[in-house]
Amino acid sequence: MEGTTIEAAGLTAAGAPPIVAYRLRMILNYNQESLSMRTLPGLPRTHLRPRWAVLAAAVLAASFVALPAHGRAQDQASLRGTLTTVEEGEPLAGATVELVELSQARRTSARGRYAFEGLVPGTYTLRFTLLGRATHERSVRVGAGETVVDVALEPEAIALNPLMVLLDRTRLAGGAASAIPGAVHVVTAAELEARPTAFDDVHGMLRGVPGVSVQEEDGYGLRPNIGMRGTGTERSSKITLLEDGVLIAPAPYAAPAAYYFPTAGRMEAIEVRKGSSQVKYGPRTVGGALNLVSTSIPDRFRIAGELAGGEQGTGKVHAIVGDSDRNFGWMAETYQIRTDGFKRLDVGGDTGFYLQDYVAKLRLNSDRNAPGLYHELELKLGYHDERSDETYLGLTEADFDADPLRRYAASQNDVMNTDHRQYQVRYFVQPTAAVDVTATLYRNEFARNWYKLDSVDGTGIAAILDDPVTFAPELAILRGGASGDDALVVRANNREYLSQGIQSALGVRFGLGGVANALEVGVRYHEDEEDRLQQQDGFRMEAGRMVATSEGAPGSQANRISGAEALAFYAQNRLDLGRLSLTPGIRFETIDFTRTDYAGDDPGRSAPTGVRENGVEAWIPGIGASFLAAPGVRLLAGIHEGFGPPGPGADDRTESESSVNYELGGRVQRDDFTAQVIGFRVDYDNILGAATLATGEEGSGRLFNGGAVDVQGVEVALDYEPRVRAPVGAFRLPLRLAYTFTDATFQTAFESDFEPWGTVEPGHELPYLARHQLFASAGVAFPRWSVHVSATHGSAMRTRAGQGDVPEGEGTDAFLVLGAIADYRVAPQAALFLGVENVTDERYVVARRPAGARPGLPRTIQAGVRIDAW
pTM, whole model, 2 decimals? Predict the structure, then answer.
């Protein structure tokens, strides 16, 4: 195979047969031509079908079946094992395991595991490398079936190599997740491949993480609603949302609702961190932080991808190519997905979406093996474009019971268009083994216009669906009945966002009085802004079709700019006292908000009609403890203050969200078994609610103080993956379980216009918070094929605060959703897969906001091929 090349999209790489290069060029050219059809005037999007995905999967599968016979032998073998530390036997994540003779490499998972499938029996050389650990080589005789090689790595003489340090500065779990004094979870790409997620919905990806609450809305996860430990889920606005350690919400301080969310399908890992040691990841520290880890620049040439197709005109393309040498590295990636949608419009048409995402990275670095000063500079550029035919209009209870996948005719013009641009430059320097500095300059630009139905004959759509008897004439119009001019008002929620800043972290390691210290000090200056220039247009309903009757002037519905300037500082020190580790930390936030309003007839903004300024300062302390009770067994405890800033325009009576948070538990990591059990309590002094269209309100952004709230619960995560030897051959039985119990009640009485709360009495339960959440999966994995099944359960949730029996129409449904996925490896570098979500096609209400009952994703089937060649 030497001397052959793949040449596609202007990129050339050694190591693949010419037939693969030719077929890959053909696929890419066909895909590009097909996707460009969508931009042609007058061509309906329904003309674009996933023929390209099905064709690509078939061609690539045939190409890889034609690879050398070592991938097709009947007596295929597999090689797998676990990498741990010599000292405590704890797993080593992110290590490189290389199969020298085949030039194949794998990264160990969060549990220290690696695997090579589809091998020919014989003798191989394994090379294990991890920064901070001594390189280890071992010659292994691999027979038919499964061979297990577990290795414990010694620490290097020179501790804390540069890249290991960099992980601690840019990732929540860092390079040693097992030692973190608090709840931490890492969901790897390999784990996600064992779950059927046709649309790479981040809600489904997080179901296996205890302590995380999700509320579905559109079935695809386009606008995720994620909370942690009772924070509330509205547009993920109550958690700190990051990509590669950088704030990624459109305007994290001024407008934190995540109408843009990074494409989860292109991530190599998702990290969740809760507890005391997450105070360094503000501004929001009540629940926790979520970090999406984008694809890393590979340390050797890599080409990887996924091609898939399914029902409702669904197709997906994901491609990665990259390489590194001693002082330079690069990576290019694209992720594209589209579907016609699973809902059925009364008058016909699409209810799906189209999304395209591009990321490029470049890295310059000094010699990593040279002693002394080390430098690294990385540039990251990203572009995201989405069109989704999504709506806020749900169904009445009766219509949902009759056909939960129906969409009313009045939502036929509803559509969301978004555009996101990402710029990031990160510089890392380690002048000595004990000192390092990381500085990141970032800018994110986001524009979106969600054109969607707002009201009928002056009545909001939420009110109509809440009381369809009183508003029967308006409901008839929603269903396509005739109306007068301007009876239907469609709002253009046209907004632009800017988020930019610079953040830096200094790490210092030193000994003091016989105690090892790892001090990290960080500072961030951040600016963000939300610019609203919204209008409302009028329509009439005629024979089931909406006909435009009036057009609003830009800015006539809302014309304002909201902004924030924030300076944040944190200091955190880890003290190693033998088997006891203490991590005290403190964070400081000072934030200045400004809201500037303009007249509705002044789109040029010649003069403001009002300017409101407010600000807040907060000190946020915390301390965590970790005790190594036995090899692989740690006890954890922590306490920290929770903080959530108000927004622009808040009056003097609006207080910041504040709480005191506690956690206590333990973590066990032994051989094939991993367990983490954490008990938590959140004592809110003051909880905040924000009036938005997503909560069924008018979208004013007004803030509401909810007073004291008590939240307590338990998080359980179990992972057992025994290796079984049987007459049919060696195989694995991966078993996983995640369970969360949460009890959250108001402790004070009050009245508010905030729709999910309303009139509250002590003892009322928080809305949109499941009391019980459960995820369980089981599988069987042979060297060439595997099958995994999963079950996801959520108890019914209130949609409004209350206690006792849930009134009809004020709750979601309890559900149990089953999934299954199977894959077959046709070559060491390629596998076919078939996945089914919601196997039993269960129909259930997942939400009643923004307006009316909304269904979960129905049964969905996908099939495709994955390749990953190093």
Answer: 0.85
